[in-house]
């Protein structure tokens, strides 16, 4: 079976990697559960691991995900058949304005050449809430380097073209949504920044 880096990350046997992801999921699901929602879209869902985590906890009734990469969607449909996954661009999502109570976008914006345009589209399809997360820099790069990952790039993942500190990311979001927003919560599951 073809795999992706995201699939490898979520199926890793490395105990540190597994702990980091479980901590991220724990914090995310705890906060989303408080919102009392019916529908959730994961923009840049990969294989749907985050949506499956929410579905198992019965957080909502409708779970959808989009991803640009067909390989990720094909894998996701096989391993998470109860989630509606489709191939689509984060820059032009196939949904009307305000289609979902919550739109998630976790670990995606750091990969995009046009994160401002993606952010506007994320907010467009959200009815009530948006949850965003990115690597918390320089902590993310430093932790990669210290554990021997990406040494030749001083800890930076080759796919990461945007880097934000936690203050920088919040400022970026507030300036570039096209909407007046209020950050309800800030969480920092090591080594990420998460905004609600």
- Evaluate the radius of gyration: 16 Å
* Shape annotation: globular
Mean model confidence by pLDDT: 89
What is the count of helical runs?
7
Strand order across the largest sheet = 3-2-1-4-5-7-6
| H/E element sequence | HHEHEHEEHEHHEE
Broad structural category: alpha/beta
Give the total of beta strands.
Answer: 7
Percent of sequence in beta strands: 15-25%
Distance between the termini: 35 Å
Weakly predicted, low-confidence segments: none
User: What fraction, in percent, of the residue positions are helical?
Assistant: 25-40%
Sheet with most strands = 7 strands, mixed
Topology:
Blueprint: H1 5-10, H2 15-35, E1 39-43, H3 49-56, E2 62-67, H4 70-79, E3 84-87, E4 100-106, H5 115-125, E5 126-135, H6 139-146, H7 166-176, E6 186-187, E7 192-195
Parallel strand pairs: 1-2, 1-4, 2-3, 4-5
Antiparallel strand pairs: 5-7, 6-7
